[in-house]
Amino acid sequence: MSITISDIARLSGVSLSTVSRVLNNSGYVKDETRKKVEEVIRQNNFIPSAIARNLSKSQSTTIGIIVPDITNSYFGEVIKGVSEIAEENGLNIILFNTDNILEKEIRALNVLKEQRIRGIIMTPGFGEEKDNFKYIDTINKLNIPIVLVSADIKFKKMSGIFVDNINAGFDATNLLLKKGHSKIAIMTGILSSEPAAHRLLGYKKALKESNIDIEQRYILSGDFNMKKAYELTKKLIEDEDRPTALITCSNRMTIGAIKALKEKNINIPEDLAIVAFDRVALLDYLGINITYIDELPLSLGKKSMNLLLDILNNNISEKEKRIIVKPRIIFKGSEEKI
Amino acid sequence: MSITISDIARLSGVSLSTVSRVLNNSGYVKDETRKKVEEVIRQNNFIPSAIARNLSKSQSTTIGIIVPDITNSYFGEVIKGVSEIAEENGLNIILFNTDNILEKEIRALNVLKEQRIRGIIMTPGFGEEKDNFKYIDTINKLNIPIVLVSADIKFKKMSGIFVDNINAGFDATNLLLKKGHSKIAIMTGILSSEPAAHRLLGYKKALKESNIDIEQRYILSGDFNMKKAYELTKKLIEDEDRPTALITCSNRMTIGAIKALKEKNINIPEDLAIVAFDRVALLDYLGINITYIDELPLSLGKKSMNLLLDILNNNISEKEKRIIVKPRIIFKGSEEKI
DNA sequence: CTGTTAGCGCTTTCAC
DNA sequence: GTGAAAGCGCTAACAG
C-alpha cells in the first residue's frame, strides 16, 4: 500500500541497507549515492514507517501520559510541560483521560503496555486505595518505567514529581490560624487521591498543634469539581455556627465555593476568609483576589518528563527517584481576618 | 527482553498460530487447548505487542490529534470528546500541541505519518494562509484521512466539523445592532486562522447590511490570548469616541477584556455591551453574565471522531464530508443597550 | 563504502 | 483444529 524502503532501494539502484543508512545518517555512504537516494526519497515523498523501525529496534519513541481530567487547565499545563520536553527529545505522547474512573486508569496502563511505550507519566487517582488489588497488581506487573506527577501512590514506592501536600495543607491552615481564625473548614477532593488525603492531614496537624479540636462538620469531602463544591459551600454557610475561613483544595472547587458565596452575599474575606489550592487564572484577571497555593503545573510537567528521561537514560542511581516540590503561596489578601 | 507469543507457544506446547488464534478469538481452537494457552498467558502476564501486530496487519489502532493550545479548556473539551469515542472503538490517541506555531503543526503531521496512524483530527491554525507552500504541500502529500475540527482550511476542500463562523459573527453583530448599538468593535483572534477571519467577515457583512461604515479602529487583531486582549481593550476604551459594544472572539480574550473593563470601572452592559465567543464556565459561576456564542466543543470533538470513523469504515459516499454546526447564542443580557 | 542476511513479534494463508 | 511458512518494513551485524 504505502511505499517502502525497498521501493526506494530499487528505484535508486542500491540495497536496502544503503537506504537505511541514508535515512539514519549512520555508517558510510558515498556522497553521490546519498544524493541519489535522497532525491528518490524526496520525489516519492517517502516517510519511513516508525512501526517497522520500532519493531526492528525493539524500542519505541512514544511515551504514555495518563491524567484524570484533560479539561482541567491544571492538567493541560502538566501535559504541555511534558509535551515540550518530549518533543525536544523526539518522543511522542499517547494520551489517556480517565475521568477519575479506576477501570479506565487500569485499561490505560494495559494499553500502554501493549503499545510498548518507553515510559509512562501519570497522575494516579487512586493512590490511597491500599486494598485495591487489581490496581496494585496492574502497576506491579507492568514493568515499564513510571513517573508519577503531582500525586503519589501509598502502597508502592515509585518515582515521581510530588508536591508536598501535607506541608501545603499545614501551611494553608497555619496561615489562617495566624491571622486569628480558629473555625476553619476544609473542602477536600476525593480522598482516594493522595493530594486530597495529604492536604487534609496537614490541616489536621496544624489544628492539633494549635490545640484546636477537629470538627467533622468542617471537613467537607468534595470531588474536585465545581458543582459539588458549590453545594457543599452553600450548606456550610447556612450553618448556624459557621466557620470564618475555608480552604478549597482545587481550582474548580474554588470556583464552586465562590459562586455559593456570591449568591449568599458573603464577602471574602470579611465574612469568610479563603485559602485555595491551584491558580485560577481568571480570578486574578477578574480582580477576585484569592490567596492560593501554586503548584506550577507546567513546571511539574517538565520536571516529570525530565525525570523520565533520566530514568530511561540510566542517569539515576537510586531505584526510585522522588522529587518533592514545595508549592508556593501567592498572597492576595483573602486569608485576612477582618 | 519482553516475553513473546512464541514463548507462550512453547510453554503451552502449541504453535504460534494457535496462540495467535486464542489471542484474537479467530478461527477454531479446541476448548481444552484454548484454556491451556490462556492459562499460560495469564501466568506469564503476557500482553502481545501492538507494534508487531500493527506491522503485520499494516494497520495501526492509533489516531492523531493536533490542537493549538491544550491548556485552553476549549481544546480540552474537544480532546475529551474525541477520546471518549475513540476509546469506545479501541483507538488510541497521539497528541500534539502546536502553540500556534506553523512549524510545529507541520512536524506533527509528518510524525503522525511516520507513525502510520489511521487518521488525524486537527484544528488547523493557519487555514487562511493561501500562499504558504510548505503547509499546503505537507497536507497534500500526507495521504491520511484528516478531519478538521472547528477551523477550516481555505485552500483545500477537506472533511471536517465546522462552525458556521460567518453567520455566528453576523448574528453576534446583528444582535448588537438590533439592540441599538452602532459603534461596535470586534476583537478577533489571529487572522491566519479561519474562525477569526470568518467571524470578522460576518461582522463586516452585518454592518454593511445596516449601512454602517466599517471603522478600522474598531477592528482589533488579537491572538486569542488574555494579555493581548487586555491591552487592546485598554486602548480601545481610552479612545475619545469609543464604541458602545464589543465582540470578543475567544474565551481567553473575553477574560482579558473584562479585566481591562474592571480596572477602568467600565460597567457591562451600561458602559460597554459585550457579546463573546465560547463559554467561560467560570464567568457563569461568578455571576458575571456575558452573552456568548457557544460552540459546544465537547460535542465538536465527538462529532469529529465519529466522522473520522465513518471515513475509515467507508461509510461516506462523498469525497469530503463537511458538517457545519450552527453555534447557539446564550443570552445573558450583556448585549443590551442601556 | 555497499550488499546479504537474519531477525523484531505478530498475522495469515495454505496444508494436513 | 492445528502447524509451517511467508511476510509486514525496517535495522544491524557481517562479509566483502
Q: Estimate the mean pLDDT confidence of chain A.
A: 93
Please identify which CATH superfamily of the largest domain in chain A we are dealing with.
Answer: Response regulator
* Largest sheet entry of chain A: 6 strands, parallel
Order of helices and strands of chain A: HHHHEHEHEHEEHEHEHEHEHEHEE
How many domain modules of chain A? 3
* Terminal residue distance of chain A: 73 Å
> Greatest contact pair?
A-B, 54 and 55 residues
Question: Could you outline the blueprint of secondary structure elements for this entry?
Answer:
The structure is a homodimer of 338-residue chains.
Chain A: H1 5-12, H2 16-24, H3 31-43, H4 50-57, E1 62-67, H5 73-88, E2 92-97, H6 102-114, E3 119-122, H7 133-142, E4 146-149, E5 160-163, H8 165-178, E6 184-188, H9 194-209, E7 219-221, H10 226-238, E8 245-248, H11 251-263, E9 273-277, H12 281-286, E10 291-294, H13 297-312, E11 322-325, E12 328-330
Chain A binds a DNA duplex (16 and 16 nucleotides) through residues 2, 4-6, 14-21, 23-24, 26-30, 33, 48-58.
